[in-house]
Amino acid sequence: MNKIIFLIVMSILIYGPGTAKACTIFSCSRGGEVYAAANEDDTTPFNRIWYNPATKARYASVCFGAPDMQIASAMNEHGLFFDYAAANYDLSKLNLTNPYKGDIMWEVLGKCKNVKEALVILKKYDYISQSQVLLADKEGNSVLINPKGIIEKKGDFQINSNCNMINGKLACRRPEIANEMLSESKENNINFLKTILDKTHQEGELNTLYSTICDLKKGIIYVYLFHDYNTVYKIDLKAELKKGYRIENLADHFPPSFAYESFSKNHALYLKESIFQEMKDKGMESIIDRYIEESRTSPSKNKNLDPALLEVALQLIKYSWNEHNNGSMWDYWFSKPLGYEIKQYKDPKIDAAQRILTYLSAQNNPDSKMQNFLYEILGFINLVQGNNNLARDLYEKAIHNPEQTYNVTLVRGKEILKRMNDLKQ
């Protein structure tokens, strides 16, 4: 398999839950209305939206996120909202000894109706993400949560942004502009909030990929794609949740846009996304057959195809895990303790991912670390399928030579084998 930088950087070495790189997020409660609004700024398009109906254990919700199915922002059926902004906290310098074993904000989203209930959970654990999250409810309450603590709202609005401090001053104007506009006006309506988002959006290497305005009382979400604030996708959350669980491409809800299409086509994940769309339109098995055959017969003409197929396989696993775990992210991918509690299930998407990875692992791959990574993910698939003996063999192959193994594969592989050995005793 050809080695390409984007695959290694984006799919393997990014080790741990991330957030959008630069965002402007705020809540505002005045005049009897309660809103939360955000610009989601990043370098990777192809954002997803997924709907999670209620279960006996969780409230219903909608989530927005990147193709890797990490949640960037979410709102549940009771009007509880959160949105992350990336930050640069040095966790090694903080005394964080009691982390939650999974994604604590996902737990809050499923179990809490308001900020008051959420704080009961949040105050039990250390927040160990290098991010700051705004949590707001339809009652007008909001807080900021980061590894250093919890900041309650003062006044009728609260801003979450991620500009770094340089010489005691913010490195950008986005939060200042939002603060000035919210402070100097008593307005609180869609047009006013949309103006703030427009004034704080980004273009260039970092782009505002999409923006949202959430009416927390009415359960309505207004979505804008790629800083075009004249075209809106309106979500009635209650009505959409009645349609059941599903994952959608956010851009599919908007008319064609030259700016967005140009940005997307120049992205390293474009080939993977194109293959994924073909699978959706024409059927998974036939498209996988075609691209495996193309890879086999014309390798020199398709130097980017095998890495794209690997990304397709990983996307299938992420989709499958999301569907069978009530909409949650693939905790195993981020080495969270909950991720090692493997749930067994049957799913054609898992079978398709296995087929792609089996083909790729059989190629003459000069990159030993990549080969061991393939063994690891095949081991995970076999655990999900209940093939424990084969899974053990694959994990042992994946970590047999630590010097030729990605650190993330080594960590996950050792933990899985330890747990399998503990179960045998």
From TrEMBL:
Domain Peptidase C45 hydrolase: 49-145
InterPro entries in alphabetical order: Ntn_hydrolases_N, Peptidase_C45_hydrolase
This protein's record includes keyword Nucleotide-binding: no
UniProt keyword annotations, A-Z: Signal
Signal sequence segment: 1-22
Keyword set includes Ion transport: no
This protein's name: Peptidase C45 hydrolase domain-containing protein
Organism: Chryseobacterium cheonjiense
Taxonomic lineage of the native organism: Bacteria, Pseudomonadati, Bacteroidota, Flavobacteriia, Flavobacteriales
